[in-house]
Amino acid sequence: MRTIRSLDVEDARILIAGAREKAEEIGVPMCIAITDEAGNLLAFERMTGGKVTSITIAIDKSYTASGAKKATHEYGAASQPGAPAYGIASAIGGRLMVVGGGLPVMDGGDVVGGIGVSSGTPAQDMEVAQAGIDRLMSRA
Amino acid sequence: MRTIRSLDVEDARILIAGAREKAEEIGVPMCIAITDEAGNLLAFERMTGGKVTSITIAIDKSYTASGAKKATHEYGAASQPGAPAYGIASAIGGRLMVVGGGLPVMDGGDVVGGIGVSSGTPAQDMEVAQAGIDRLMSRA
Amino acid sequence: MRTIRSLDVEDARILIAGAREKAEEIGVPMCIAITDEAGNLLAFERMTGGKVTSITIAIDKSYTASGAKKATHEYGAASQPGAPAYGIASAIGGRLMVVGGGLPVMDGGDVVGGIGVSSGTPAQDMEVAQAGIDRLMSRA
Amino acid sequence: MRTIRSLDVEDARILIAGAREKAEEIGVPMCIAITDEAGNLLAFERMTGGKVTSITIAIDKSYTASGAKKATHEYGAASQPGAPAYGIASAIGGRLMVVGGGLPVMDGGDVVGGIGVSSGTPAQDMEVAQAGIDRLMSRA
Q1: Where are the beta strands (DSSP E) in chain C?
Q2: Using CB atoms within 10 A as the burial measure, which of A38, C69, C108, D51 is most buried?
Q3: Which residue stretches of chain A have pLDDT < 50?
Q4: For testing the chain C interface, which of D36, D40, D112 should be mutated: the one with the most C CBs within 10 Å?
Q5: ipTM topping 0.85
Q6: Can you give the residue range of the structural domain that contains B126?
């Protein structure tokens, strides 16, 4: 038997609030998804103007970040042509996201969940995801 | 050209808050999903204790209710063996939900979105979904 | 943040060993799957003679039992024509199993995972799954 | 009519044991999957700390190696931009894995199954998969 620490829905709301505020600040409406330690969806919001195609992308970025315990943009670098993880982007029916915007949420050295953001550029998505984590960390 | 009226994310939060309060009142933690007029996910929350299997079920109940402009339990009656819609339950890769807990959200005679609830009995899911709608209507 | 207790791979091996021994005793080679608290696969074995079609069925029975915190045969009763959960069998792309052979694994009142068995009759599958749980409980 | 030689579940356990020991030695907890000659899952284990996203990836690496009778990293080379198999990575709904960590298991010149490993770097996954094969060969 093992004991696992994971985000709950209260944490998820704080993550979304922090991300949303940054998205408003930079003027890019986003889809924002939060998954628990196991990669299962905890909470989601699509801001007015967030893209329909970004619903699944945000959820899958968050799934990838929490399930693989790695930021999605790290996979982006590792999966370039010629790099060792080339081709990983289509794994798990395409759920394995290698585009920036998915970040693991850490607590005391453990991955406890993930946040996935989509609708802007990958750099904007990453900035907004990080703002969600910063908000949660400031509350901890 | 046409103009479409639809729920937005602010409405979605009110729907979720009303549903969550009822779920807490009856002591059944739920997955709660809100979709817009087009059936696309607007917002989602899984309360602590909400079932992992209910994530997709709640989203698909809401998708069915807004997309088909019909409560999912109405499909339940219409899809019994021998009834005209028998077999519809497995349509759209299984996304067409015929179990109670998905309700269309109406505004002035138009369907403007849906709410889907899952983790309890179908009767509990329907009660919690209705509480979400009641909350939104009381704000209108 | 929340703390979750879950089966680990050592527990999974004990569950499989207990189930396999019962399957050998009744002379029905089985597919046996173990999932963690979140419904994710921990371990799997297909005995010689276990059915190819039962691979996914065993995994999905275990997923359903741990994710929905309910034995799959309970869904079987609740999803008969005319019953409240009629139609649930095709949910989650057909992963929601309502055929007997999936059991939640409990520990101190909490669901900590699931076991799913397939290749025999539902009654045989249930008996073999229960034998896995009995083995784990006798070690606790 | 033809006769097929294939791994059985006893072989699968030896393959997993050899792989697991190497994974422990290098300190990288892994998902380890074994498929038979036909590409169907025989056995699977997720070590504590093995990634959730790697469940499907390990199974699909093994499926690819036994089904295509080729190591997955060979596809990695052949599917680079400009190479003949470019684009194959998304085939079969993304199940065709081109990332290292899937190896065919040979016996007397025939492919009799596959092993797929995931959670580390592709080089680590390959090393662990090879250790499983080495263990089986040493028993033959």
Answers
A1: 2-6, 31-36, 41-46, 102-107, 110-118
A2: D51
A3: none
A4: D40
A5: yes
A6: 9-139
